[in-house]
Amino acid sequence: MSQRTLVLLKPDTVRRGLIGEIVGRIERKADWRITALEMRVLDRALLEQHYGEHVGRPFYEPLVEFMASGPVVALIVEGERVIEGVRALAGPTDPIAAQPGSIRGDYGVIVRENLIHASDSEESAERELKIFFPGRA
């Protein structure tokens, strides 16, 4: 069954010049397709909508500030088991726990700046795609 997911290449990915490397890893998966790609700076209103379930948690404000600190690359990726697959490709949030070969295992430095966001379920993907790509959701 084909799925769609949102992938965000975070400001640290852009600052470190890793866009091509990460997009290339996604493109090399045989059954995955990037069907939309856009670079933009995210405003607070969009970030509040995206991270709304985390309001009040200690990491919320630093996360919103980080995500607004520079441009991100937003992608729609489609393919077989793409939600689970992109999350495996990204690796765990903590780069120390991430295996070599995963994006965070190869390039991650600290937990808060962890290079990539990928929807964690079909429900999240549907909600997040409506936020970031309302005309294509």
Keywords, please?
39% helix, 137 residues, phosphoprotein, alpha+beta, transferase, 7 helices, 4 strands, nucleotide metabolism, globular, Alpha-Beta Plaits
Tally the structural domains: 1
Number of DSSP-assigned strands:
4
Q: State mean pLDDT (0 to 100 scale).
A: 95
Strand content: 15-25%
Question: How far apart are the first and last residues' alpha carbons, in Å?
Answer: 18 Å
Q: What is the C-alpha radius of gyration, as a whole number of Å?
A: 14 Å
What is the name of the CATH topology? Alpha-Beta Plaits
Low-confidence stretches: none
Helix count, DSSP H or I runs of 4 or more residues:
7
* Helix and strand element order: EHHEHHEHHEH
Subcellular location: Cytoplasm
InterPro entries: NDK-like_dom, NDK-like_dom_sf, Nucleoside_diP_kinase, Nucleoside_diP_kinase_AS
Function: Major role in the synthesis of nucleoside triphosphates other than ATP. The ATP gamma phosphate is transferred to the NDP beta phosphate via a ping-pong mechanism, using a phosphorylated active-site intermediate.
Family: Belongs to the NDK family.
Topology (elements, then pairings):
Elements: E1 2-9, H1 11-15, H2 19-27, E2 33-40, H3 44-50, H4 60-67, E3 72-80, H5 82-90, H6 103-107, E4 116-118, H7 122-132
Antiparallel strand pairs: 1-3, 1-4, 2-3
Structural overview:
- Major role in the synthesis of nucleoside triphosphates other than ATP. The ATP gamma phosphate is transferred to the NDP beta phosphate via a ping-pong mechanism, using a phosphorylated active-site intermediate.
- Keywords: ATP-binding, Cytoplasm, Kinase, Magnesium, Metal-binding, Nucleotide metabolism, Nucleotide-binding, Phosphoprotein, Transferase.
- The protein is α+β, with helices and mostly antiparallel strands.
- It has one domain: Nucleoside diphosphate kinase-like domain (Alpha-Beta Plaits), CATH 3.30.70.
- Helix content is 39%, strand content 20%.
- The protein has helices spanning 11-15, 19-27, 44-50, 60-67, 82-90, 103-107, 122-132; strands spanning 2-9, 33-40, 72-80, 116-118.
- Strands 2-3-1-4 form a 4-stranded antiparallel beta sheet, with helices on both faces.
- The longest helix is centred in the C-terminal third of the chain and has 11 residues, at 122-132.
